């Protein structure tokens, strides 16, 4: 059996990430004027989607099946969205909150993968999957363009947090310090992307290639 990875720090990161992603899913259903059942469904699949895929890939027990609090947090978050006006959640506030969930979940995913003996590069990918797949499932089910298709930095922030978490695992620093720094670094990048619309360069055909195609 792998070493238990969930310490108090990662416990809080886990609950925080689940709650924030669940809220984003519930609010999407609320804006579409759906029923509470639909809001609860969106909250659940968004909150646990990334962690579920991660656990299946690293051959770990699916985390929310054995922990009764996870589903309760998702449904409780859906209830909060149900009884509050959607205008309370408009603007950039939810984007920043989503950034917290994204980077916290990326750290959690990488740390858990390492505890199951996953090698460094796949462990980084597990962190990225943990942080992003729930939102991808939410967008696909809702029939809207996924956030990963936007040029604004998103996956990159998760990758930064996951990479710092894995890199820090070889140091002698306390785990809580590594995890905290990794989360804050990714959050700083994501916040800057939201504030200043930072984006990576998009692919463009070279002029020479276009001339050859046209010729």
UniProtKB/TrEMBL annotation:
Its main location: membrane. Residues 12-84, 96-167 form the Glycine transporter domain. It is a multi-pass membrane protein. The chain crosses the membrane at residues 12-29, 36-57, 63-84. The keyword Membrane applies. The keyword Transmembrane helix applies. It comes from Parerythrobacter lacustris. Belongs to the UPF0126 family. This is Trimeric intracellular cation channel family protein. It comes from the Bacteria. It is found in: Cell membrane. Keywords: Cell membrane, Membrane, Transmembrane, Transmembrane helix. The lineage of its organism: Bacteria, Pseudomonadati, Pseudomonadota, Alphaproteobacteria, Sphingomonadales.
């Amino acid at each position: 059996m792998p070493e238990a990875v969930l310490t108090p720090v990662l416990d809080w990161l886990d609950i925080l990430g689940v709650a924030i992603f669940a809220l984003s899913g519930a609010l999407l259903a609320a804006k579409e004027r759906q029923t509470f059942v639909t809001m609860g469904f969106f909250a659940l699949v968004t909150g646990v989607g990334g962690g579920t895929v991660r656990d299946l890939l690293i051959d770990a027990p699916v985390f929310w099946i054995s922990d009764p609090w996870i589903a309760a947090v998702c449904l409780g978050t859906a209830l909060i969205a149900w009884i509050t006006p959607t205008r309370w959640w408009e603007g950039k506030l939810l984007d920043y909150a989503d950034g917290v969930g994204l980077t916290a979940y990326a750290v959690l995913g990488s740390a858990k993968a390492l505890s199951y003996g996953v090698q460094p590069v796949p462990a980084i990918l597990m962190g990225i999957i943990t942080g992003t797949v729930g939102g991808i499932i939410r967008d696909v089910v809702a029939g809207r363009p996924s956030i990963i298709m936007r040029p604004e930095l998103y996956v990159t922030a998760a990758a930064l947090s996951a990479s710092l978490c894995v890199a820090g695992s070889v140091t002698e620093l306390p785990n809580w310090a590594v995890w905290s720094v990794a989360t804050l670094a990714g959050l700083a990048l994501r916040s800057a992307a939201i504030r200043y619309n930072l984006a990576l360069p998009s692919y463009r055909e070279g002029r020479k290639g276009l001339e050859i195609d046209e010729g």
